């Protein structure tokens, strides 16, 4: 390469470097023209040799900014290269080595103070300016004519050189063809012998290649057989490993399933036990309250109406109601016993299920081979069903709480109504009992309160259970009634009290 790099060439470079570059370019153009024309002049030969050397060795002029004042030590003048260096101006150093030419610009070159020359304006007359303009125009026209003449001369020279080159190339081509034909005539017999020799050699090589192909084919068949056996052994090992992994996964899944079932069982048993205890405590409290209240009322009635024989029938009626209550209590105790029996049956069923699970776990290894992809689907089905059962359990518990709240509200309302009715009846009975006491005929009454014969009304028995008369007493709702009510409202809930019923 000759001249400056593309990115570093600018107007800041001095005129001497530009003249040097122009000289190199002109020398290269002249050498190329001389080579095209074919004239072997000494100047053109020297120029061509120098340009070829420059192009081959990669000589280039680099414009580098020296940071000598700031960071410096990475530039040619600081390196170990030996060569000539010329200081052209302050801050501008030109150095040359065997393979490169370096132009170095320091900060001094850019910061060098320039001599300030005062420009003195001179008044030039107009006629002199016009004369100068005319002279310049004449010079420009002469230069244009000279350029046109040079261009015409170059065109003629170029056409002349082109015609000469074409003629010389045709002559060289004709000579080359003649030489080739002579060489072909000389060596035609040798070429035929070589072709025959090559054909025989090719046949021998084909036979050798066929033998090698047969040997390689036999080796390939042997390798295929060995690979098949190796593949079968690897497949067997992989199947064994997969079977072991599947067995481990199944054992883990069964453990997790058993653990979750046991936890759910414990939760349900705790809930049932709590409900049972609450019901027992409520019933016991009601019974004790009824007994105490009944005793107090009997004492009050005996003190107030000791002289009145009208209360005998009412007391008998109260005795009948007490017997009815006892019968109801016996029924409730029977219901509780049935519930306890049902719970025992559930426990027995759970024990049997646990025994079946244990037997299944013992025989699990024998049944592993019978399990297929449906087993995983069944696991997912059980998990989804478990989630649904939990959701239903929460809904059932919420419904039970709501039902209990509604029952308590109804109980309060009913209690208020009964107290108001009992108060009205008591006031009516006290107003009618104001005349002197007489022993009226006491009409017998049935359990439902229907009279057999008409007679004056007797004062009602105020043996209440929290202000509730015996005729209108009803059994409190139990867990079974609430459960039946929930099953009537939601048909999706299964009846767990049925014998032989198993949860899916």
From TrEMBL:
Protein name: Uncharacterized protein
Region (Disordered): 1-52, 414-476
Organism: Callorhinchus milii
Assigned GO CC terms: cytoplasm
Coiled coil: 133-226, 315-363
InterPro entries (UniProt xref): FLACC1
Biased composition (Polar residues): 43-52
Superkingdom classification of source: Eukaryota
Keywords assigned by UniProt, alphabetized: Coiled coil
Compositional bias per record (Pro residues), positions renumbered to this chain: 434-443
